[in-house]
Write a structure and sequence with these properties.
Blueprint: E1 3-4, E2 15-16, H1 22-30, E3 33-39, E4 46-51, H2 52-59, E5 65-70, E6 73-84, E7 91-99, E8 104-114, H3 118-121, E9 125-128, E10 132-138, E11 145-149, E12 158-160, E13 169-171, E14 178-183, H4 186-219
Length: about 220
């Protein structure tokens, strides 16, 4: 169970923001731009704009750390916060945090299932309980995804956080948290339970019948 890391880092295309305030921000969004702030330690914040289409491209790149040009210098940044409109759920603002590759950071990373579970071939369903985890590591060791190998799972088997073999980062979740499991389909489970219950009822009836016979024998 390993992790994948990016090759060439995605570069954010931003422009200096010149107009501020609610009215200016609203106008920017109408024009298809997203206000972006960049923070880094005790340095002053930088205000930029980014096209909404480029924002979507960046978010779909699969990368966690991006390149960005700040005052003519290439820097690295991670997403610190994304604000959404309370009604439309549309992205209205983004904060970026400048980092160095040797910095220890905590960052959310996607969880990907890899392999084919034998239990699925047996009629089971593969269930992924968690799709994202927060990891702690150096900026240079941030994985693109945490991979969970399910190729050894039969029906009833489960992979927990403690089962992952990781070296360059720490997963900030309790070891007993379930990541993936293979279960019986619900209808099949119901059939199995009903069959077991019917079997128990039949045994109970036999026991009751045996008890009646014994009582008759004792009366004689």
């Amino acid at each position: 169970m390993a992790h994948t890391k990016a090759g060439k880092r995605f570069e954010l295309q931003v422009e200096q923001r010149s107009a501020f305030g609610r009215r200016a921000a609203k106008e920017l969004r109408k024009q298809g731009y997203l206000p972006v702030n960049f923070y880094s330690g005790g340095d002053a914040a930088h205000s930029f704009v980014m096209t909404e289409s480029h924002f979507r491209e960046a978010m779909h790149s699969g990368e966690q750390i991006f390149n960005i040009m700040i005052d003519g210098e290439q820097r690295r940044a991670m997403v610190k916060d994304i604000q959404y409109h309370p009604v439309t759920d549309k992205v209205i603002h983004m904060d970026l945090l400048g980092i160095r590759l040797r910095d220890i950071i905590e960052i959310p990373v996607a969880v990907h299932m890899v392999g084919v579970a034998p239990g699925v071939k047996e009629g089971g369903l593969l269930q992924q309980a968690i799709h994202e985890v927060v990891v702690r590591c150096k900026g240079e060791d941030v994985p693109d995804a945490v991979e969970v190998d399910v190729s050894g799972l039969s029906i009833g088997d489960t992979v927990h956080v403690r089962d992952l073999k990781v070296k360059d980062y720490e997963i900030l979740l309790a070891g007993d948290i379930t990541l993936a499991s293979v279960v019986l389909p619900q209808k099949l489970e119901e059939v199995v339970v009903e069959t077991v219950e019917e079997g128990l009822d039949f045994e109970d009836e036999e026991d009751a019948a045996d008890g009646d016979d014994s009582e008759e024998d004792s009366d004689e």
